[in-house]
Amino acid sequence: MGTGMANNLRQQGLLAAVWNRTFARARDFAQKSGCIAVEALPDITNHCEALVICVSADQDLLDVIATLRPALRPGMLIIDCSTVSASTARACAAQLREVACEFLDAPVSGGVEGARLGTLAIMAGGSPDAFARAQPILSAMGKTITHFGDNGCGQAAKAANQILCAGAIQAAAEAMAFAKAEGLPLDKLIDTLSKGAGGSWYFAHRAPNMMNDHYPAGFRVRLHEKDLKICRDMAREHGAQLPLIEMTLIQYRRLIEQGHGDEDISTLFRLKTALFNHP
């Protein structure tokens, strides 16, 4: 995701410097793109007025903010495209307000394809001023950009999206397993059903993985498991337990135990096909 997003920022003349926890990745990207690679994270603040962050988990984001904070200048804009909890986004915003910087939680959806093509859907939470300032940056990475309210609202919208993703991949995997058991030509099925009322982005783009029994990482099982745990915790704050989340978390845990945690979530097809008795 990060590489595609950075490439689109570079193409719009908006990328000055990059940092990665694995410096070799930043260095290699910088050599290809012509930007600067910094080895120490605080040094990136010497090259920009706005920062875009995309990391894997809540603690990762909190660590990045804590490391950056002493080096930030008043008025800088921090845009976080990670998927974390709404409470973590609000905590980061509060920490940055103490050094007179603005924070926009701006998680993204659209997979590696959307990141590469600059067509991501971006869900933003923060002040109207921060959202307005971020427009050139967000527009370089996405096509559908929506301001949902104060800090944390972007992450709440992303949580809703992750629940939809769980439902879509569950339905796609079960439908494909059923079709395989019925002996249908899966290539024709994908082409036809993708155009019907039951079609979805996940069916059109990930059912081919199931047909080919090959699951290159687009959205890793481990990461979606992490996201669904965030959704579960947020639902619990309202006294709710969501069956779709609970079922999917059980199945993801099984896949991880079987060694499939770094495969795309379409690997759920493995568990669905096991429900049928194939000759």
Assess the beta-strand content as a share of residues: 5-15%
Distance separating the two termini: 40 Å
| CATH topology type of the largest domain | Rossmann fold
- Run of helices and strands: HEHEEHEHEEHEHEHHHHHH
Main sheet: strands, sense, barrel: 3 strands, parallel
What do the pLDDT scores average to? 96
The chain-level structural class is mainly alpha
The number of helices is 12
Name of the CATH superfamily of the largest domain? NAD(P)-binding Rossmann-like Domain
Number of domains: 2
Helical content stands at 40-55%
Gyration radius, to the nearest Å? Answer: 20 Å
| Strands, count | 8
The CATH class of the largest domain is identified as Alpha Beta
With strands numbered from the N-terminus, the spatial order across the biggest sheet is 3-4-5
What is this structure, in a nutshell?
Helix content is 54%, strand content 11%. It is mainly alpha-helical.
Description:
It is globular, with a radius of gyration of 20 Å. It has two domains: 2-151, Rossmann fold, CATH 3.40.50; 156-273, Orthogonal Bundle (N-(1-d-carboxylethyl)-l-norvaline Dehydrogenase, domain 2). The protein is built from twelve helices and eight strands. It is mainly alpha-helical.
List keywords for this structure.
279 residues; mainly alpha; Rossmann fold; N-(1-d-carboxylethyl)-l-norvaline Dehydrogenase, domain 2; 2 domains; 3-stranded parallel sheet
